[in-house]
């Protein structure tokens, strides 16, 4: 877990990949009870607006993308979706960009109800006021996949 705060981005990203694999071996219960709370503890609601911690939020998004591959839809709803929703509203463009990409990654393992009630509205909100073309593109792409996932 210490590698998640390394100053070298490739080390943080590889740690996220490896931790995802460990969750695959140790099980989803270990992931949601031990790994995610510890790894995401520095990303509290009060920190979401501060640019100084945006690397932590970016790393958290990479981590949940990798860990979610081994979680159930219920676990994703309870332990991942809220974090992704908050990141979609972040003041830092790179975090919103990564959050839109994370939505694409978690959609296949997320229940239609959660996608319909939480992720689609969050992605639509991104579309409303966003100026960054890359964020618009990936949030639109995630929105398209979300609607298709729900059968719309």
Protein model, in words:
Helix 1 (9-26) runs parallel beside helix 3 and helix 2 packs antiparallel against helix 3. Residues 44-49 have low confidence and may be disordered. This protein has helices at residues 9-26, 28-40, 54-67, 73-79, 81-88, 93-106, 112-129, 133-149. The chain is an all-alpha fold and 152 residues long. The chain is globular, with a radius of gyration of 15 Å. 72% of the residues lie in helices and 0% in strands. The termini are far apart.
Helix-strand layout with pairing:
Elements: H1 9-26, H2 28-40, H3 54-67, H4 73-79, H5 81-88, H6 93-106, H7 112-129, H8 133-149
- Which word captures the global form? globular
| Helicity, as a percent range | over 70%
Counting DSSP E segments of at least 2 residues, the number of strands comes to: 0
- Secondary structural class: mainly alpha
Low-pLDDT residue spans: 44-49
Provide a count of the helices: 8
Oligomer: single chain
What's the story with the biggest beta sheet? none
Strand content: under 5%
Order of helices and strands: HHHHHHHH
